[in-house]
Design goal:
This protein has about 290 residues and is of the alpha/beta class. The chain has one domain: NAD(P)-binding Rossmann-like Domain (Rossmann fold, 3-Layer(aba) Sandwich), CATH 3.40.50.720. The protein is built from nine helices and seven strands. It has a seven-stranded parallel beta sheet with strand order 3-2-1-4-5-6-7, sandwiched between helices. Helix 1 links the parallel strand 1 and strand 2. It starts with 6 loop residues before the first strand and ends with a helix.
Amino acid sequence: MTLDNKVAIVAGATRGAGRAMAVKLGEAGATVYVTGRSTKAEPSPMNRKETIEDTAELVNEAGGHGIPVQVDHTSKEQVKAFIERVRSEQKGQLDILVNDIWGGDPLTEWGKDVGEHSLTKGLQMQKQAVGAHIITSHYAVPLMKKNRSGLIVEITDGITDEYRGNFYYSLAKISNIHMAKAMAKDLKDYKITSIALTPGFLRSEAMLDLFGVTEENWQEGTKVEKHFIASETPYYIGEALKHLATDPDVHRFNGKTLSTWGLSEVYGFKDSDGSQPHWGNYYDRYVKGTEEER
């Protein structure tokens, strides 16, 4: 499982799944460009403590080469300049692109329909979670086409096109799935693999903060949300990505929507605490029926 001499971009690697995926690619030896808006000198509007420099340091500690670059992926000019930098520094090589730009949690107004939800927030969510992915792919894909190889991963939430409880949230996450399928068709002649990948109930830094717990006592979060018991750390999706990126037969998944729990059955990896969470089974057994009743 080595990614020595491989070059990756994880767009949106400041924290959560993006950070963990960057670290796991580094663990396999990759050079990883970690992008986001939060730096030690300039925090993003999210106003959190995590930074891209911290992520890059973790990539280095894991055995890779982390390169932090501040990029607002909703800006065509910034993304174009960033991809040109990668092209120049890596002599045109790009092997892995992970589109994980999100930032939609503070924009989502749960319980409000399309006519009640803030239009400004809803459209901003599409700009960040859909538009930014399109812009990044537009400028990055030509590097992969030139080399006739590559892996593109669209990070989403869920494996189906079922409604996700909010008009704008659903639109964004289902769009990510369709983008992966569309690129799989568009780029099939270039031996480029395009997939969508979802975590289960992600136990991210922000979620831990929301429930007032830490990774050490995370089970206490079930007092706030009982389904938190089935959550997984960001490193579970990191493991999923690492196994995909090192799989010589990854193209068999081209155009598919994959999950951490499904891939854990394929590859046999576990979460950082040695567990093997299966959100799919848990959701079908304990969550789906109650949501349909509502």
